[in-house]
Amino acid sequence: MSAAARAFLIWLLAMLAGAAVVWNSHFSADMSFFLPGRPSATQQVLVDQLKEGAVTRLLMVAIEGGNATQRAAASRQLHGRLEKMPEFVSVQNGQAGSLDADRDFLFRHRYLLSPAVKPERFTVEGLRESIANSVDLLASPAGMVIKPLLPRDPTGEMMELLTALNAGAQPNIREGVWASRDGARAMLLIQSAALGSDTDAQENTIATIRGQFADSAREAGFSDARIVISGPGVFAVKSRETIKSEVSKLSAISTLAIIAVLFFVYRSGRLLTLGLLPVVSGALAGIVAVSLIYGTVFGITVGFGAALIGEAVDYSIYYFVQSGRMGAAEWRVRFWPTIRLGVLTSVCGFAALLFSGFPGLAQLGLYSLSGVLVAALVTRFILPALASNDHPVRDLSHLTPPIRQGIRTMQKLRWPVILLTLAATAVLVINRDQLWHPNLSALSTVSAADAATDMDLRADIGAPDSRYMVVITAPDREAALQAAERAGQQLDELVARGVLGGYDSPARFLPSQAMQAARRASLPASHELVARLQMAQVDSPLAASKLGPFLDEVDKAKEQAGITRQSLNGTSLALAVDSLLMQRPDSWSVLLPLRPPAGDKGVDIDIAPVRTALAGSGALFIDMKSEFDRLYNDYLDEATLLSLAGFVAIVGLLAVTLRSARRLGAVLLPLLLAVILVITGVHLSGEQLHLMHLIGMLLIVAVGSNYALFFDSAGNDGRLDPPTLASMAVANLTTAIGFGTLALSSVPVLHAIGVTVGPGAVLALMLAACFSGRSHE
Amino acid sequence: MIKRLLGCLLLLALTLPASAAFDVGQLMTDLAKNKGGKAKFTEKKFISLLDKPVVSSGEMRYTAPDRLEKRTLVPKVETLLLDKDMLSIEREKQKLSINLANQPEALAFVDSIRGTLSGNRAALEKNYALHLSGNSDKWVLTLLPSEQKIAALVVRITVSGSRGLIRSIEYLQADGDRSLLTMEPVELK
Are A198 and A50 in contact (CB under 8 A)? Predict the structure, then answer.
């Protein structure tokens, strides 16, 4: 077997194995790209909420067009259709009767549910006071509501429950169903059975809503009906669509542009195909490595392939162009060391990302690292065997004069370049406080228009944003509920002091067994209650004789079975409890979402008193927004550290290899200047910098070093032979195309890398030329 | 001669209601002139379940055309504020706000007071049939709900007053219970 055939066979087997791995890989385009890989306890809550929290299953629906009657009819139609489907846990549109089951449940179990049920409540004094209260309430406008219940519930337990339930603002109602604030659209609030992190299921759910809506609008002859849906599920689905379409679009643009360049250079289908071999191998290896190590491949990672293509194709360009006359053996001696050093600096840059706690970043690092490495290895070991020495590259010597002219021009511009960089540095220093985007939303794929629609619908329907919550972990359900009740007592005080507007708790509808037993034990025996009631009501306008139904109800409550999770089935309270009380692999966790006080204080909660009240109780207070901000800052700090570490590794590598401070300085200077100029350019173009721009800076150094190293290899006279110059120009062009394509992306992570590394690579080459050699004729 | 006399009488009979007689339009004009003021009120609720009526009292303040504040002082302090379509009730530490646009029945109920106070005939006739008796100095306006949903709650509302001032409002509920609100103006704008 010839060397070529053996090489090809090995390569083919590796590729087939790789393809098999990729075929079985799991691809994802969800939020986990951004979620911490090694979360702290508070961050774990954040991750859980984003992946399976009830809020992520919420879809807000607005029906537009037609008149209020048509919209209300469409809302009822849609409600009727969706309610029966298993894909939906709850469908609410505010129509009358929808809360009857909840009200019945509360009334039936009021003596086990009402926090006012204590032994004191049923003493003579307690009865007198609570019944007098109810009679007073008859004087109020609310009296009409309680009057029919009075004989059965004279102590007002139902009122206690309803007061605690009232969560403040309710959506508007037009024609009997929820409407937006301006009344121009009908609103529904839908909870999907599918988890928010299950993007496939969310996509189906959303499609079902749209389909059912279209059907019912058609049946009703409501021709200009429109539906607007928003919520975390919609964002997830849209992000995935964006990433999917961009991955194919960007890869196609980058591949076509690079093929065009290669064809111009090679004018040979065979060389073109061979030249793409390392690229394809690298791209495949990247996905294989990520899939094997992380299990899941993020869509954004694959999107980064567009840049990898531009970078990986360089090696074959160097090989074909440079080895044209001298042959493979000579090339290995003269050029491979320089290229190898370039590959290693790139690897150092990407490897720094591997240590990131930001999973997306670590994946990008691994993907690029393995891709570049494999592309270089294929170029070095497989390509020469396959191409043998028979690869006449078209004569590119006509490129040499303009390139040399360009280098000379650049060399004359040393001082202007240095002055320009100083000016740029000044701009950055002066604007240092406005350079950075402050939070994680900078990386979000959600478009501004979609975010605005979401805000709008959320305000219309008063959907919870769940910014503040208390989290409790306990070994079992009963312990969890008891802990929720204890924390609830602390929170009640804060509500009374006006620090909080209110809070939700699963124990409100599903009290712990201990609490239920205590409440049941508070109810006096029948004959005892009769006697006490007689004494209590002596002077009351409500005679004890009229309260027979009350005695029956208390008797019934004493006999009644306790409330379990199953008793809540068929009410919307079940959903409320399930979303606040969750079973973990080895524990239970309770969420108590807090509401800010009503009024003009805004939507913030004064955090200090809440922390003080909960101190020592084991309950964790979390402000989701500040957690997100902290998470982002952690990422940013970490990325800064990693970039510096990557930079130090590159400097170390170059120092060891070059063994000359002067040469090291000559290689690094153009790279640093390129970084400063690019960042200033990005800032002046109005973009706020974020995490990925920072990574972009590292990559400018990692990728750009290749060009500076060629100039370095030329030695003091700085003269590079024509093939080397041509290969550098072409390789730089393909790299700029590969990274530059990412700048077209609307995915911020990719865009930021594109706008920094694309121009950065070109600048690195130009500036390396600018500072190359000492003297040129 | 007789014929002419009869003709005059007939003419008189036809013109009288339009000029001298007191009608709903006239009352509404009188009421609309009232731009607001403060009154003491006493409300008695006669409820079959109770042996005695529940009595409450306090102050009411009205600012034309759509702001009404009812502050109950006895037996419990409670403030009810109606501002356009927002009804808020504050009682002890509880505060409740209701957008009446969401509650057509409650809105109809509230409109019986608000429509009368502001002399808004269109608002009243949307939900009630109006019957007026008496004269400008002592009138009684009866509102009979035309809408079945409202009639299920209240069968008759009787408002009495003198010129542009309301003296009492009586609600007769469908279950036979009734409430009587009497007002004594303390200042006028």
Answer: no
